[in-house]
Amino acid sequence: MTGYLTTHVLDTARGTPAEGLHISLFRIGADGAELIARAVTNRDGRTDTPILPQGAFETGVYELVFHAGDYLRASGQAAAEPLFLDVVPLRFGISDPAAHYHVPLLLSPFGYSTYRGS
C-alpha cells in the first residue's frame, strides 16, 4: 500500500473551517524546492482530494505553504497591514512510504499551530 498526504485548516478565531484558503505543496530536494501541487480548501476546510495522492507519494522533505493572509483579508480578519501572519510555511518529513500523513493547520490572525494528525 502506498501512503498519501492530506491537510485541514480550521479558523480558530471564528470557530469554523477555513474555506477558500490557497495551499501550495513543495518537495524539498538538493536543488531546492519544487512546486508539486496546489489546492484550495473547501467548505470543510479540507482539500477535495489528497494534496499528495498515492501515485505521487514518496518519502522525503516537503513544505506546505498556506496563503493565510489572502484568507484572512477575504474573511474580514485583517485589522491592519502588514498582517502579522501572511504566508505560513510548514516543513516536515515523510519517512513511512505506506502511511497516511495528515498535517492540519489551526489558524487565527495572530497565531497558528500544527501537528501530525490521523
Mean pLDDT: 96
**Total helical elements:** 1
User: Stretches where pLDDT falls below 50 for ≥5 residues?
Assistant: none
Q: From the alpha-carbon coordinates, what is the Rg to the nearest angstrom? A: 14 Å
| Total domain modules | 1
Subunit structure: Homotetramer.
Enzyme class: hydrolase
GO molecular function: hydroxyisourate hydrolase activity
Catalytic activity: 5-hydroxyisourate + H2O = 5-hydroxy-2-oxo-4-ureido-2,5-dihydro-1H-imidazole-5-carboxylate + H(+)
Question: How would you describe the overall organization of this protein?
Answer:
The protein is mostly beta strands. It has a single domain (4-108), classed as Immunoglobulin-like. It has one helix and ten strands. The protein has one helix at 68-74, and strands at 4-6, 9-11, 16-17, 22-29, 32-40, 60-66, 88-94, 100-102, 105-108, 111-114. Strands 3-2-9-10 form a four-stranded mixed sheet, with no helix packed on it. A four-stranded antiparallel sheet has the order 5-4-6-7, covered by helices on one side. The chain has a two-stranded parallel sheet with strand order 1-8. It is globular and about 40 Å long. The two termini are 17 Å apart. The model has no long low-confidence stretch (mean pLDDT 96).
Highlighted features:
Immunoglobulin-like; 10 strands; EC 3.5.2.17; 42% strand; four-stranded antiparallel β-sheet; 118 residues; 1 helix; purine metabolism; mainly beta
Helix-strand layout with pairing:
Blueprint: E1 4-6, E2 9-11, E3 16-17, E4 22-29, E5 32-40, E6 60-66, H1 68-74, E7 88-94, E8 100-102, E9 105-108, E10 111-114
Parallel strand pairs: 1-8, 2-9
Antiparallel strand pairs: 2-3, 4-5, 4-6, 6-7, 9-10
